[in-house]
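Recap for those who missed Tuesday's class. We walked through two folding examples back to back. For each one, the amino acid string is listed first and its predicted structure tokens come directly after. Nothing is annotated here on purpose, so try labeling regions yourself before you check the end of the notes.
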Amino acid sequence: MYRFLLSRQWVIITLVALLLIPTMIRLGIWQMHRHDERTARNQLVSEALSADPVPVERLTSPGHTVSTGQRYRSVTAVGHFDTEREIVVRRRVNGDEKVGFHVVTPFVLKDGKVLLVNRGWIPADAPSQTAFPEVPAPPAGQVTVTGRLMPDETTAASGIKNLQGLPDRQVMLINSAQEAQRLGARVLGGYIAQTAPEPANGTPEPIGRPGNEDAALNYAYAIQWWLFSAGVPVGWVILVRRELRDRREAAAAQKPAEAQPAAV
């Protein structure tokens, strides 16, 4: 009665089941790796945000690459804003998903080095995308700024294409090496998302704090995949037993018909 398992249909069903089991197990393992990665990232972000502010030059310098452990660290700097060489970053959204610009202003330190300060978001309400938007002025004179240290933006990390031929003082990515070439200055690696002093009248709109990634969801997905993998052989057995039952019923129904005498 089990000879039907050698049919083309059942060979295919069995092979698919055998392939699904390791595939689902591997997907569960991958989700657990994602869970561990997100948990570790959340821990790093939490530690960085809760750490006391330090002078920015303790963590970065011209040409420095901001590491994962340094990202989001709170830093301070003393100097003055250079609004004449300010730039805006195109196609950025605020907390309400409205498209506008990020305002990046060179901040000149006492020793002449430059720190890029992302002062926040402004709406794209200029008459055209080629005109430089109206940007609220930062505090004048010497000032102390505080912000979260961020790595240079790249196309590989962000997926944003670094378009060429943009209007004057408009860019797609915040990149210290690119700005060092434009400014002809010693620019500290990375940039900061300003948190203090708070902007007058709430503009530019400050960049929001990073949120925690949902690591628990990856854990749930891993359990789900493993349950699916356990369900595949159970489902296969149920299908086999159903097929066997149907064949037995069909055979039982055929026997009385064969047993009846032929009509004279």
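Example two. Treat it independently of the first, because the proteins are unrelated.
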Amino acid sequence: MALHTRDGGLVIPNAWDGLSALMLADAGFEAIATSSAALAATLGRLDGRHEVTLEEHLEHARLLGRLTGLPVNGDFEDGYGDTPEDVAATVEAAVESGLAGIGVEDTSGNPDQPIRGFDEAVNRIRSAVAAAKGRIVVTGRTDNFIQGRPDLEDTIRRLTAFADVGADVLYAPYPPDLDALVAIVTAVAPTPVNVLVSPSDKVLTVAELQKAGVKRISLGPLLYTQAMGALEQATKALVAGDLASATTGMSFDRVSELLARGTK
């Protein structure tokens, strides 16, 4: 939690495999996170309700931590379970796997009602906090904005309730604008708030987000999609017969150097 409460907070980038984790560690980041969407994509699956199993995600997180020695925050969807007891079991498994943090969403996996009811959502966070016993940072997350429910009042109500039952960090991906973000930060203070890149209307700088009171900035699958964008451009060059453009990138010597660090 110290990284969240210090001046400026932290940027916590999301890795998707061993090499990306080592690159982020080499760049000097003090903690990293998983991304359920990026992990699912690496396995050829769509992000969604438990498309990646709990054990697959735990093993992935253990790999990132083992290679880098950094604290790892797990993007664990809805806590891998329908009941508060299931969420508690997931938190315990995350603790046993050495994770430093875990996120629990209020999503349901039901396309007709994608967000769980208020009381159910709060009870699940309460159960996560009780299971954590201070051993792991619990992030309470509401997905209102990315599930077609642009209700700022309900979002603040949920986040405030998550804080009241002990969530260490609060998170509502993609509030509509900076004013909404500031309203969230102000309403739940002093509990730290995580932001996924920026509000949905404009990508801000780290300094601008820090000025707004944000304490943690994550990137979700966006570093992964950035890398895949570079691969797509290389593929187009290859199709056009341009071998030089298709093969310009990190040298394999550099890859080997990073991987060697992860085996020590």
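Answers for example two:
The mean pLDDT is 96.
Residues 14 and 223 are 7 Å apart (CA to CA).
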